[in-house]
Amino acid sequence: MRSHTASQIVLQSVGERVTLAGWVDRRRHHGGVAFVDLRDHTGVVQVVMEPQRFEESVLLRREYCIQVHGVIRRRPEGAENPAMSSGMVEMDVEELTILSPSEELPFPIEDRTDAEELLRLEYRYLDLRRPRMARNLAARSLALRTVRRTLEDMAFWEVETPTLIRSTPEGARDLLVPSRHNPGAFYALPQSPQIYKQLLMVAGVDRYYQMCRCYRDEDFRADRQLEFTQIDLEGAFWDQDDVLAAVEKVVMAVASVLRPDQEIPVPLPRLTYGEAMARYGTDKPDVRFGMQIQDLSDVFAGTGFRAFANILGSGGVVRGINAGQIQMSRARADALIAKARQWGAGGLVWMVVRPQAPPRSPVAKFLSQVELDSLVERMGGTPGDVLLLVADREKTAAQTLGRLRLDLGTPDDPDSLEFLWVVDFPMFEEKDGEITFLHHPFTSPTDVEQMVSRPLESVARSYDLVLNGVELGSGSVRIHDPDTQRRVFEIMGIPEEEAEERFGWFIKALRYGAPPHAGFAVGFDRLVAVLRGVSSIREIIPFPKTQTGAEPLSSSPAAVDREQLAELGIAVAPRRARAKPSG
User: Fold this and answer.
1) Per-residue exposure over 206-238, b if at least 16 CB sit within 10 Å of its own CB, e if not
2) Which CATH architecture has domain 6-100?
């Protein structure tokens, strides 16, 4: 069908007789001659047709699939296009075959398009023809090859784990699959291969990896989908440093092929969870700019400002950020206060540093000169800087200032890649008065006795990889002692009978000489998205879902036949009508 691709047509091709195939990208007529830009997956070549020789050329429209045969010649002087790899040459077409015509397009096949995403997803096969989307697909493929090659070179075995499993708690809702042979029973699609990869360690596999599909029924965001791909790896006789070193090799290999302009020093920097929350108000900090959170509690330890004094007296904190020299009108101040309250804080105090005068602020009159001077000095304030303070519980103050920091901050170099590890996460957190795991219940604590006596103070042997404020993945040293695993279930309030019924098969395996082991999972779609500089993983996944979990291309999810439901022993309850508002 073709002897060359577009990228292979260069100045050295002049005089060669070649066959090309692809799509009509553009068509122009000048002086009775048709100029067609022929596009394939590698690039574009200009082909020239004389209408008197090819009546079909008059009929050609954009996205017609065609085959052309002819001779490569140099373009006339002044007609060169240095922006194209084939811009010095063109094809003099001798034969033209229309392989497949195209209907009128729903949107232009070009990078600049104002088509709504829903329309693009409905015609995803056309959307993927756009050069930028095609480059994203090529980058994804290159990254996949790089991951596999790197891990194979490190003596990892690629092992597949089941897609239909038993439901296990891993932080999100399971996607369930009914069993026809066992009416009333369900499989779950794996949120991750967590238990099975641990069982591979018990089975004697030394180094495991898998490019696995994972499924989580959770709320949608730009970086989340019902189904996604992750780089999953696990190693026996591993500790935390072994995992981090292996993951760094894999991720740096991918970064080197997708972003060769960046030189990233390794080992990557590390922050503890406590340090990340204290400095940045988040466990996935973007460190491409400063604006770090400052603890000001000691500055106001003896303050007469009642709002601060009451918070500090009840065990709270006063913290702040220097937002720099931003315009601070009354309207903007009110908007920032509203945001702080929306994010859970009781309020927000703002100040504008002035030369040779106290800061401009609604609360300046309630603070002493010593407090104001100490505040400005602590926060490195210079005339024109805006200081934002939150007095509240420690977690609320940190998270509110962290969100304000991201809202107001700008990376010093938006194109830079700033990786870091966040380590030493809490083992548990409290939700709705109940203790639950922060990562997953198979994470090893640093101190078992502390975990039992003071679970909310317990530190896990877990770690996250962060890039430019995006969490790429998580991992941990696993529990390999069945008694410790049983204690974790007890702390979470899972009765022994329930734990045995749900996890007995897994705990049994830990009783047969389970080696110490650890692992990690990198969100592959997120990694490629950040390296490609796109904000949504939907630009990286070939056929993604919408924000509501729909796929416009195939109109899924969709109802199924009653016969299918009957075979599964399932009856679909009618949807309840929403109550009409009264009055």
Assistant:
1) bbbbbebebbbeeeeeebbbbebbbbbbbbbeb
2) Beta Barrel (2.40)
* Residue environment code for 138-177, b if the CB has 16+ CB neighbours within 10 A, otherwise e: ebbeebbebbbebbeeeebeebebeeebbbbbbeeebbee
- Residue 495 CB neighbour total at 10 angstroms: 10
Distance CA 536, CA 130 (A): 17
- pLDDT (tens digit per residue) in 58-100: 788 999 999 999 999 999 998 898 888 899 999 999 999 999 9
**Contact by Cβ (8 Å): 220, 227:** no
At 541, list the tokens. 């996944």
DSSP 8-state code for residue 217: B
101: cis peptide before it, omega within 30°? no
Question: Among 233, 258, 226, which Cα is nearest to 247's?
Answer: 233
Contact in structure between 61 and 27 (CB atoms under 8 Å): yes
Got the DSSP string for 308-336? HHHHHHTT-EEEEEE--S----HHHHHHH
Q: Which residue has the tokens 């006795």?
A: 449
Indicate the average pLDDT of the chain. Answer: 92
Which two structure tokens, joined as six digits, stand for 499? 């734990």
For residue 285, give both structure tokens: 């900090």
Task: Identify the sign of the CA torsion 562, 565, 570, 574.
Answer: negative
290-408: CATH number = 3.30.1360.30
Stated pTM of the model: 0.90
**Beta-carbon contacts of residue 47 (< 8 Å; ≥ 6 apart):** 20, 35, 36, 37, 38, 68, 70, 90, 91, 93
What pLDDT score does 582 carry?
47
What single DSSP character describes residue 457? G
Classify domain 134-272+419-425+460-480+515-539 at the CATH superfamily level: Bira Bifunctional Protein; Domain 2 (3.30.930.10)
- Closest-CA residue to 41 (of 133, 177, 145): 133
Return the bridge partners of 320, or none: 294, 389
pLDDT band at 220 (very low <50, low <70, confident <90, very high): low
